[in-house]
C-alpha cells in the first residue's frame, strides 16, 4: 500500500520572502509507491497550473562506465533523444514542439535521466508522454549520429584540455579517487570516446536503463490514478535488472599530496580537497551548516574573509561538499596571481585547520542558520524545483519527509555537531592540493600519517 506524508512548502514565489508577516503555509502531500514495473514513484499533485512535470532517473551516470569505455554513459544519455522507435531526431523535436512540450536531461557521476514539461490537458499530455516512453523504451542510438557526436565530443575535449580549470579538475579527481569510478571524466577521454561503438552504447543502455532501478518523479495537474498510469507507461517497457550494480566504497586518503602543473595562465587555479560524504550520511546537516560558515556562504564565509577581504589574494574563494551515492568530494577552490599562490595556500590550510579544530562561533552559527532557513522557500518555489527534490529523495533514498523536516534539521545543529562532523569527515593533514599555473611541474607527497 502506498505511504503518504506531508511536505511543508513555505511560500510559492520569491516575492513572499519580502512580506513583513510570515507567509501563509501551503501543505501538499508527497505520495510514493512502487509501480508494477518495479520503479519507485514520487508524486505531488498541484492543480494551480495546467502543467505537468515528469522525470525518470536511472543509476547510469559516468561512474558506471568501464575505464576502457569511459564516455559510454554520457554518449548513451546524449543519444537517447536523437532517434527512437523509428523516429529521427528531427521528428522527435518537431512532435514535442507541436504540443508545446519540452524534454530535458540530467547526467552526472551517479545518475542519468530525462525530464518532460507539458501542458496537462489530456490531448497534449498524451502525445508528449508517448514520445518520452518511446525514447526510453526504444532508443535507436544510430551509428551515423554516434560518429557525428564523437567528432564533436573529441573536439570539445581537446579544446577543454588546454584550459587551466579543466587541467586542475582532472588532476584533482584522479588524485582524490585514484582507481574509483569517480575518477573518470564524465564525458570520457579522447582515446576512449574515439573507440566507442553502437554496440557499446546498446550494452550500456540494456544494463543500466532498467525498470526496477528507475525513479519516477511526477509533479503537477494530474490525479493519483493518472500518475500511476503515467509511471507504468514510462517504465513497463523497460527490462528488469539482474544483479544490482553497486558503486565501490571510496577509500580515505592515506597522505597529503600536492601537484603543481605548469601552465602559461596569468592566474593559478587551485583546488584542495578530499573524499567527503555520501548523500545519506547522518552528518549531512551538520556539514551543510558548517561549510556555509567555512566557505559556502559567499563573502561572509571564513575562507573568503581570510583570502579575499583581509589579504586581497583572490577575487573569490569557496568550499563545498558534493554528496553522492558514494563519498562525493569536499572541495576548496580559488584563483590567484601566480606569485601569490603559495601565500594563498598557506592561508587556506591554516583556516581549515583552525575550523576543524575549533568549529564556528555562536554568532557565525546563528547567521548561517538564518541564511539557510531564509533561503529554503527558494528551493521549493516552483513545480520544477519540487520535481528536482522529489527525484533526489527517491534516488538517494532520503526520508520522504525530507523537505518537511529540513528547517528543523538545520535549526538543531550545534557547534559541537559541526566540530564532531568535521573531525570525522575532514583531515586537514591528508588533503589533495592541485595548482595549475606555474613555471614547472612538481609533485609532492607528504609522509603517510596513518
Structural features, described:
This protein has 450 residues and is of the alpha+beta class. It folds into 2 domains: 3-235, Metalloenzyme, LuxS/M16 peptidase-like (Cytochrome Bc1 Complex, Chain A, domain 1, 2-Layer Sandwich); 257-445, Metalloenzyme, LuxS/M16 peptidase-like (Cytochrome Bc1 Complex, Chain A, domain 1), CATH 3.30.830.10. The chain has 15 helices and 15 strands. The strands form 3 sheets. A 7-stranded mixed beta sheet has the order 1-2-3-9-4-8-7, sandwiched between helices. The chain has a 6-stranded mixed beta sheet with strand order 12-13-11-14-10-15, with helices on both faces. Strands 5-6 form a two-stranded antiparallel ribbon. Residues 1-27 have low confidence and may be disordered.
Got a strand count? 15
Tell me the fraction of residues in β-strands, as a range: 15-25%
At the fourth level of CATH, the homologous superfamily of the largest domain is Metalloenzyme, LuxS/M16 peptidase-like
Coarse structural class: alpha+beta
What is the CATH third-level topology name of the largest domain?
Cytochrome Bc1 Complex, Chain A, domain 1
CATH class of the largest domain: Alpha Beta
CATH architecture of the largest domain: 2-Layer Sandwich
Largest sheet: 7 strands, mixed
How are helices and strands ordered from N to C? EEEEHEEHEEHHHHHEHEEHHEEHHHHHEE
Principal-axis shape: globular
Low-confidence stretches: 1-27
Across the major sheet, the strand order is 1-2-3-9-4-8-7
Question: Into which percent range does the helicity of residues fall?
Answer: 25-40%
Radius of gyration equals 23 Å
- Mean pLDDT across the residues is 91
Integer count of domains: 2
Amino acid at each position: 500500500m502506498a505511504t503518504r506524508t506531508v511536505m511543508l512548502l513555505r511560500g510559492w514565489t520569491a516575492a513572499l520572502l519580502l512580506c513583513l508577516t510570515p507567509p501563509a503555509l501551503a501543505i501538499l502531500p508527497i505520495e510514493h509507491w512502487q509501480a508494477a514495473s518495479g520503479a519507485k514513484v514520487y508524486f505531488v499533485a498541484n492543480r494551480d497550473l495546467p502543467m505537468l512535470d515528469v522525470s525518470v532517473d536511472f543509476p547510469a551516470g559516468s561512474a558506471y562506465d568501464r575505464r576502457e569505455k569511459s564516455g559510454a554513459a554520457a554518449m548513451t544519455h546524449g543519444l537517447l533523444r536523437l532517434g527512437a522507435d523509428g523516429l529521427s531526431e528531427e521528428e522527435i523535436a518537431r512532435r514535442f514542439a507541436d504540443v508545446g512540450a519540452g524534454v530535458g536531461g540530467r547526467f552526472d557521476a551517479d545518475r542519468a535521466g530525462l525530464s518532460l514539461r507539458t501542458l496537462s490537458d489530456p490531448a497534449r499530455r498524451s502525445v508528449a508522454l508517448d514520445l518520452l516512453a518511446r525514447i526510453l523504451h526504444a532508443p535507436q542510438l544510430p551509428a551515423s549520429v554516434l560518429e557525428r557526436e564523437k567528432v564533436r565530443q573529441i573536439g570539445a575535449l581537446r579544446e577543454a584540455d588546454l584550459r587551466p580549470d579543466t587541467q586542475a579538475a582532472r588532476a584533482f579527481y584522479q588524485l582524490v579517487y585514484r582507481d574509483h569510478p569517480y575518477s573518470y571524466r564524465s564525458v570520457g577521454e579522447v582515446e576512449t570516446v574515439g573507440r566507442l561503438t553502437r554496440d557499446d552504447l546498446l550494452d550500456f543502455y540494456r544494463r543500466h536503463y532498467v525498470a526496477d532501478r528507475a525513479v519516477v518523479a511526477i509533479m503537477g495537474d494530474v490525479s493519483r490514478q493518472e500518475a500511476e498510469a503515467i509511471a507504468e507507461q514510462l517504465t513497463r517497457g523497460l527490462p528488469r535488472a539482474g544483479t544490482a550494480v553497486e558503486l565501490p566504497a571510496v577509500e580515505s586518503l592515506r597522505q597529503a599530496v600536492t601537484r603543481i602543473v605548469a601552465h602559461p595562465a596569468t592566474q593559478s587555479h587551485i583546488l584542495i580537497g578530499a573524499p567527503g560524504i555520501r548523500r545519506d550520511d547522518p552528518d549531512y546537516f551538520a556539514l551543510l551548516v558548517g561549510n556555509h560558515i567555512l566557505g559556502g556562504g559567499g563573502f561572509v564565509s571564513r575562507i573568503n574573509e581570510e583570502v579575499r577581504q583581509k589579504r586581497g589574494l583572490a577575487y573569490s574563494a569557496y568550499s563545498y561538499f558534493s554528496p553522492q551515492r558514494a563519498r562525493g568530494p569536499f572541495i576548496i577552490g580559488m584563483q590567484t596571481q601566480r606569485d601569490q599562490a603559495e601565500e594563498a595556500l598557506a592561508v587556506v590550510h591554516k583556516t581549515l585547520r583552525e575550523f576543524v579544530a575549533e568549529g564556528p562561533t555562536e554568532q557565525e552559527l546563528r547567521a548561517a542558520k538564518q541564511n539557510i532557513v531564509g533561503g529554503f522557500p527558494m528551493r521549493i518555489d516552483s513545480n520544477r524545483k519540487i520535481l528536482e527534490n522529489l527525484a533526489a529523495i527517491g534516488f538517494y533514498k532520503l526520508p520522504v519527509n525530507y523537505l518537511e523536516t529540513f528547517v528543523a534539521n538545520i535549526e538543531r545543529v550545534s557547534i559541537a555537531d559541526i566540530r564532531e562532523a568535521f573531525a570525522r569527515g575532514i583531515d586537514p593533514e591528508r588533503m589533495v592540493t592541485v595548482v595549475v599555473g606555474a613555471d614547472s611541474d612538481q609533485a609532492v607527497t607528504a609522509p603517510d600519517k596513518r
